[in-house]
Design a protein that fits this description.
The chain is an alpha+beta fold and 801 residues long. It is built from 26 helices and 24 strands. The longest helix is centred in the middle third of the chain and has 42 residues. It starts with a helix and ends with a helix.
């Protein structure tokens, strides 16, 4: 086989079909970028903590020490089994206050900003000169690293959702110094809640507190809890007695991350698989269409002596050149797009950072190029086996049996303008290509419908779990939730009765109080349950507290309780059953009135009145009050004045438990939905370009008999408008079904059922609008080639191939 004629033919094909080459490159660019991201998401959804731990050189053990000399700490880094270490970093635990502006729920379902309130919290701070290190590379989410006095980098897991530029006051340190938040960072194992420069730590020590240091270790054997405990014991034995104040295993952080990952993996996998499937479909469509569109030229090549292998080689090369450019640039773009998206994914998964694995960057372009080569070779070989006359005749237009019946039928529709009827009949000329285009649009619209439903469902899940719309304010009793530290001093421990009396009196006297109820939380061991049983007892009417019901009703009488799904699963019981709780010699029979939506981390949970639950747990006592406010009450002002009225020892705060995870999830859903819709639009663009190029001579005839540019645009857009409408109608049940399948899988991952309101999120008028998404994608993808067709000169179109 001679090479030079093949190269000449490929070069001639590229120069003669520049628009087609650009479309091939553009589609491969979008498909490769989408596939790189999709496969990266799928890869990272498998053991994301392990990937982040390896990438960030996580520490197996984080130890806090005191009283050990630098030489003694250095000696621990040379112990048998220690493979890497970092530190000592100076460490201090400080009490801080910070002003935050709460985001509150309003009756319309949105959010509004309230009056700033003052939060009191303890933070563990570590002095580090940079985020990098031999162990525990920190991922800087925003801002910059602390470089001087008065600066702090907060951990995204600190619980203080403060923006860069905010200030916090260290109340327990001499002079109550102020620190400005200059950055937000994440440690894969949560080694600290904030970082300052090493020199800053000395100024933050409270008077009389011993100096502490943080040491990080990696061990050769740390795969199990027993192995890690052995490693910690070896470090403890090598230091003076009492030097190790505490040690944290990475396995604890891994368990927390794994439990938080579980509900989000199903929807990320769904998006990833849709992206991969659609990319493959579109690549096959664009390549096969390009080769089919060149069938007449294949006949010409055969007529001048090209053999079938030469024809195949010429067309594979002609398609491969723009494909290589599209794949390489698409892989680069995929990685660039992946940076923010995987950043959001890492935030959703609760790990420091994620990236596209190297094998994905290698496999996706090679797979795309292989798909291009195989598809082009198969179609070109089929055309190359035709005779020259047959190929030339076939290449001029689709076979007579394809499409003319549709043209005649639609031509009789008097209500349709003739350009529109011509366009609507166009897809029937190439049924296989139309079906692939239909599938691509169906995937795109299905993703839009699924993404819309998922966003609405997650909003409702967050509202149901946070109870922020019903329990706007929480009052924690002194010392009941651990030591409450204000201005550097532990709160006085009043009697429980005195605390309750003080809180109730303050709530009754405070204008704006609508409802309030005491809440007690406890955990007990119950015979027959493998895990601890969580108890939530209320000291009065709590029907308004906002728990969503999956089945049954809110408890309403003595002996009645509500339970979560994990309880029903672990006990094998059902709503309406009676169940006997046996703990520490106490026997209490309760009736299960309803199943509440409260995953509780997979822990079985019982909710009822304190009088009912105290029979099985006599030590159950109130730890906080839940408060509902009258409409129009300013939450920030209410919290500030109530806090002043109660005085020291009580923590009054806004119920703002949304955190940063939900915005990251919603951002990820929106970005993935948009990306897949764009790729679907590229598939439409390719189809319309091919159809327009194939019928360019007909276009010239239409223009010659008086078709205007507007009519031309209407005709070209109509070639995919019908396909888009049909795709939208197919995608509605597909999107709803995908939503109804994925949401329960997400719930099962955290051992909970879902309320009907979380699943039934689509209203009829919304489905009608979403169904028109297929038309929107089709029209958007067709506009560019329609404009080209409208601008084409009549003479040029009549002379075209």
């Amino acid at each position: 086989m001679k090479t030079f004629p093949v190269l000449s033919a490929a070069r001639g094909g590229l120069s003669g079909r520049r628009v087609q080459a650009i479309v091939i490159g553009l589609v491969l660019f979008g498909s490769t970028a989408a596939s790189t991201l999709a496969l990266g998401l799928l890869a990272d959804s498998s053991a994301p903590f392990d990937r982040a731990f390896a990438a960030q050189h996580g520490a197996d053990v984080t130890a806090t020490t005191t009283g050990a000399s630098p030489a003694q700490l250095a000696a621990t880094t040379r112990l048998p089994g220690v493979t890497a270490s970092a530190g000592p970093y100076p460490e201090a635990t400080v009490s801080v206050t910070a002003k935050v502006t709460p985001s509150i729920h309003v009756s319309s379902g949105g959010h509004a900003k309230g009056t700033p309130i003052t939060l009191h919290q303890q933070l563990t701070l570590v002095g580090r000169s940079s985020p990098a290190g031999p162990l525990d590379d920190l991922t800087l989410k925003s801002g910059h690293w602390a470089s001087g006095p008065g600066q702090i980098v907060l951990s995204s897991q600190s619980g203080l959702n403060l923006a860069v530029g905010s200030q916090i006051t260290v109340t327990g340190a001499p002079g109550s110094p102020k620190l400005t938040v200059v950055g937000v960072a994440t440690s894969v194992t949560g080694t600290a809640q904030g970082w300052v420069t090493p020199a800053e730590i000395a100024a933050l020590h409270a008077a009389g507190t011993p100096e502490a240091s943080q040491m990080l270790y990696r061990f050769s054997s740390a795969g199990t809890t027993a192995a890690v405990n052995t490693d910690i014991a070896a470090v403890t034995a090598a230091l003076p007695h009492g030097s190790v104040l505490g040690a944290q295993s990475y396995l604890t952080a891994k368990a927390q991350a794994t439990s938080s990952v579980a509900p989000w993996v199903p929807f990320i996998v769904a998006f990833g698989l849709i992206g991969l499937a659609m990319s493959v479909l579109i690549v096959i469509n664009v390549v096969s269409g390009a080769v089919v569109a060149g069938t007449r030229r294949i006949g010409v090549l055969k007529s001048i002596g090209f053999s079938p292998p030469q024809v195949v080689a010429a067309y594979v090369l002609q398609v491969a050149v723009p494909a290589v450019v599209g794949c390489v640039t698409g892989a680069v773009a995929g990685n660039l797009v992946a940076v923010p998206m995987l950043g959001q994914t890492a935030q959703v998964y609760g790990v420091g950072s994620l990236g596209v694995p190297f094998w994905v960057n290698l496999a996706v372009p090679l797979a795309m190029l292989g798909l291009v080569g195989v598809t082009a070779a198969a179609i070109a070989l089929r055309a190359g086996r035709m005779s020259a006359v047959q190929a030339i005749a076939t290449g001029r237009a689709p076979r007579p049996a394809h499409g003319y019946g549709a043209h005649r039928l639609l031509g009789q529709a008097r209500l349709l303008p003739r350009p529109v009827s011509i366009g609507l009949a166009g897809p029937f000329a190439r049924p296989a290509r139309t079906l692939v285009t239909l599938a691509a649009i169906v995937f795109g619209v299905t993703t839009v419908i699924f993404g819309f439903g998922l966003r609405t469902s997650l909003d409702r899940v967050q509202a149901n779990l946070s109870h922020a719309a019903s329990e706007q304010v929480q009052v924690f009793l002194a010392g009941r939730q651990g030591p409450v530290v204000i201005n550097g001093h532990s709160s006085a421990k009043l009697s429980l009765a005195a605390q309750e009396h003080a809180v109730q009196a303050a709530l009754r006297a405070k204008p704006g109080t609508l409802h309030y109820v005491a809440q007690a939380d406890g955990q007990i061991s119950v015979l027959g349950l493998p895990d601890q049983l969580s108890l939530i007892g209320f000291g009065g009417d709590a029907n308004w507290t906002g728990y969503a019901m999956i089945a049954g009703h809110w408890y309403s009488g003595p002996g009645q309780v509500d339970v979560n799904t994990a309880f029903l699963n672990d006990t094998g019981s059902a709503v309406g059953d009676k169940y006997t709780l046996i703990s520490g010699g106490k026997h209490t029979t309760v009736q299960i009135a309803g199943e509440v939506f409260d995953p509780a981390g997979g822990t079985p949970e019982v909710i009822g009145s304190m009088s009912t639950l105290s029979a099985v747990d006599p030590g159950l006592s109130p730890s906080q009050y839940q408060v509902a406010l009258a409409p129009g009450t300013d939450v920030g002002s209410y919290v500030n004045t109530l806090s002043s009225a109660l005085g020291k020892g009580y923590l009054v705060t806004v119920n703002n438990s949304g955190g940063a995870v939900l915005p990251a999830i919603l951002g990820l859903v929106a970005a993935l939905t948009l990306l897949i819709a764009v790729v679907a639009g590229l598939g439409v663009l390719n189809t319309v370009v091919l159809q327009t190029r194939e019928r360019v001579h007909d276009l010239g005839v239409f223009k010659a008999v008086g078709m205007t540019p507007r009519q031309t645009i209407a005709m070209v857009v109509s070639t995919v408008a019908g396909t888009g409408l049909v795709a939208g109608l197919i995608a509605v049940p597909a999107g709803v079904a995908l939503h109804r399948y994925v949401l329960p899988v997400m719930g099962n991952a955290v051992q909970t059922g879902l309320p009907a309101a979380v699943l039934n999120v689509y209203r009829p008028w919304e489905l009608v609008l979403l169904a028109l998404g297929g038309l929107a994608i089709a029209v958007t993808g067709a506009l560019a080639p329609a404009g080209w067709a409208a601008r084409t000169r009549t003479a040029s179109a009549l002379r075209a191939e």
